[in-house]
Amino acid sequence: MNRGFSAEIRRIIVCTLLCVVFGLMNGYLTWTLIAGGALYMAWMLWQIHRLDVWLQNSRRFQPPDASGIWGDIFDNIVRLQKRQRREKKRLQAVVKRGQEITSALRDGILLLDTQGNIEWYNSAAGHLLHLRHQDQGNPIFNYIRHPLFIQYMDKGDFKEPLDLPSPHTGDVRLQYQITRFGQGECLVLVRDVTRLHKLEQMRKDFVGNVSHELRTPLTVIRGYVETLAMSPDLPAPWQRALQQMEQQGVRMTSLINDLLALSKLETDDRQSAHKPVVLKPLLQRIRSDAEALSGDHQHVITLNCPDHLALLGNEQELHSAFSNLVFNAVKYSPDGKQISIDVESNSLGLNLAVSDEGEGIDSVHLPRLTERFYRVDSSRHAQTGGTGLGLAIVKHVLIRHGAKLDIQSKLGKGSTFTCMFPIQSVVEQKDAASA
Ligand code: ADP
User: Fold this and answer.
1) Whose CA is nearest to atom 13 of ligand 1?
2) Is residue 263 over pLDDT 90?
3) Ligand 1 neighbourhood includes 414 CB (under 6 angstroms)
4) Which CATH number fits domain 196-267: 2.30.30.100, 3.40.630.40, 1.10.260.40, 1.10.287.130?
5) Does the structure show a pLDDT above 50 at 435?
6) CB of 353 closer than 6 angstroms to any ligand 1 atom
């Protein structure tokens, strides 16, 4: 038991004894005890009142003098207040330090509330987005009005960052990376990626220009090689050499064509032209080409596509993506195996699947398969004459059409490459005709 409490008990006992003695002396024991109790309660009420007054003004006044339990209560409250003040100071220092660190960052940070209004931002974000103090509390869309940003926020899929031109300075490129936290608030990281963007642009231009410049000399060389190869009185070793030169020339031409196609897809930021492309005739053409490619290997290619289905997109790009998938199925399947092209639509969109019974791909390769020049097996690659760019082209075409590529494969069993188009891209043929 603490000292204040035992002093209070002693005080009550002494008062009660005094009341008993006084009551016995005056002959009114009960009334004296009641009067003593009432006095004690009045004293207690007075102490509570003092405590209340002091709590209301505790910043200005020292705690009132008190003894017994009330002395302890006042002391404990003072101790608690001191601890609270120390803790508050420590937290303020932490917040200040956090603010200093975020101000020193070169990347912008914004906190958005659940409605998308700006709650707080650091100085880099203020500088990059030209924000002023009074902009706090306003919707972020007032400052970043780009339709792709609005679409990105509405979609709520923040796995990949979003690169956009700065809303204020045309040649500055900003990258937005959003993370959700708390009850649906968002943390937006804004980075100036102008330098990276320029380097990437230079790389794309370089690949495009070099491929373009190589085309003409290669055509000339191939022309001469073909003419030389046709000459009748060439010695046998020369004929073999010229044949190989011709083959390598064909390979280089397809490599350059693929590089040019990829560079065109990468450099053109605009979405693909949205015209209805009826799928069945397009896929029939691809099937005929694939049968010609298969030749003596006699693959059985089936096509299962409803007549009326059409996709909004660019016919040339779609042709290139689908033919890459079907030709790969031919290239990587043993002779006589079945290859099927299946198209189906549902309430979510349209799926175009190319399945084969080929050698399949080990699952470790699947995540990297659409990278440029990625090869599962370089010896197999040399045999098929592939460029290693086919699936990269497919990926880019699908991105430009808002679609995704899904790859399922089992070693020794075969593979299925599925292009998944969103419902907004799907049109019925009768609608397509009217469009
Ligand atoms: P390539 O020009 O070599 O075919 P791609 O980008 O089209 O380049 O394909 C990348 C790699 O993926 C290929 O080298 C091949 O190893 C593998 N691949 C693609 N399609 C298939 C398939 N249908 N079956 C097995 N492997 C495949």
Assistant:
1) 375
2) no
3) no
4) 1.10.287.130
5) no
6) no
